[in-house]
Predict the structure.
Amino acid sequence: MQLCRWLPGREIIFVGDSSFAVHTLAAALPDTATLITRLRLDASLFAPPDQRHEHTLGRPAQKGRPLPKLKTLLKDAKTEWQRIVASSWYGKQTDKTLDVTSGTGLWYRRGTPPRPIRWVLVRDPSGRREPQAFMSTNVNLEPAQIIAYFVRRWQIEVTFAETRAHLGVETQRQWNDKAIMRTTPSLLALYSLVTLWACDLLGHGVLPYAAAWYKKTEFTFSDAIGAVRMILWDQDIYRQHPPDPDIPETQPSRLKRMTQALCSLHNVQSRAKRCPSRQVYAS
């Protein structure tokens, strides 16, 4: 709500897992903000209330008749499914074929005002994953858009996990709130700088560095840090070395192997500190 007050003219989309599927949160957001989360298959959805006329008695109704549960629609043979292709899905899958059905309704719970939502029921044609449902407080979004927005959440979670593991976000030894407010954005900015720099260093045809017992086919953030360290440390090793013809310098090929091993060892030690069972590899 604070972000919505700071940015009144901008559309904001909040994406969260099932723990954020809360009636109070959905009811508190203004119309300029959209909440996209998972939805329980037994969620209580209702049709809009009947239109009032001059002879209608009593208070205005907040909701209409109950809608069928989503778990009932899964078993109903009359449910119409639409086949779409999602650009990304679980397990780094791309161009994933999914069967979806969607509709609108009032998401209601006693004590909070009803909120119109668009629900999306997703079924995996291959049967590898259980059916699941998503919801959006913006009823104008298409089902494919809702799925695409929800999938982006996984990239954000990976970013926070990598910055915590390799850059120390949320583990700073600081007691001052202002210091934490300064260092956390700086570390997140450092993550972006390392990633952008590594994209130029790790081009096509370059294979990730991996140990003999671990086969790795794609680059990770630890590879990005290692590549950036390689450039910085390699240029700095002989910067203060006095030119002396009697003292032979290390061969460039051997120096490169030593620097590469040192960069990779630093990553291994960082992981071992977080997992005591892996300290044997660091030693």
The mean pLDDT is 80. The chain has eight helices and seven strands. Residues 12 and 109 are 24 Å apart (CA to CA).
